[in-house]
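Quarterly update from the structural biology core.
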Amino acid sequence: MTAEARAASWRLALSATLFGTMAVLAKTVSRDVPAPEAAVVRFATGTVVVGALWAAGRITLRPRRWGWLFARGLFGGTAVLAYFSAMQRIPVGEATLLNYTQPVFTMLFAWLLLGERPLPRALVALPVTLFGVSLIVGIRVTDLRASVGELLGLSSAVLSGVAVTAIRASRRHEPDGSPGESAWTVFSSFTLVGLVVSMPTVLPPFGHWVAPTARQWILLLAVGATSVAAQLILTEALRHVRVDTAGVVSQLAAAVAIGGGAVFLGETPSPGFLGGAAITLAGVGLVVLGGNPPFGGRRRV
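Predicted structure, tokenized:
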């Protein structure tokens, strides 16, 4: 590994830590404020950052692949709503772990929509991951609120799988030589479309805005700041490391969320959950180590 790639790996670890921290902050504030409000603030923060940098001439946005960019924002925004709503119902570590099964679903959607055939080792990951998830979900099968939360957590992973596939499609170079979208263009589509998707959940007639207190505003803005910082660090680091490496390091976010939930929120994980988590992470690991092409590449069927 080159020095540049090693430094990028450390940045990926920082990004994953920030994502895990964001989850703990979102769980904390969601005890008093509806989860969709945290999602709206997250997207609004990202939109403000992109708008400010664009207005200052620091970044250039030239969208071309409108369909894939819209899909990135629509499915990514809906995934965040599902993820935050899951955290309001179940422990933050459990919601984060379910959300981070996303690489398994990205593998399936990239195969279906982009023709990126996974290696046999990655295909084994699907039943392994689903078995681990079934152990986690089965812990409180009689608790309706928990079951809804777990379903939302898993839904966020499926939706994220479509969103990441859209990123891959929009970022890659086509055979005719046309360049892919820039990282900033893809990020701006996520924040802007995500904001549009999430706004109806906090406004009449589908939702309502609960005025946060000063403390809650601090937590909400911290959710937005950590998520944007994590996303920007991740985007920059992906220029220097393989996607499979990024997939492995990203699982640190689930560990941070589980640990943060235990230390700060009193969510002590049970042995059954830890067993299911170990199997689930093993399945995800099979996917990310199974050989994903870089964002600019394409595996032939």
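Residues 292-301 have pLDDT under 50 and may be disordered.
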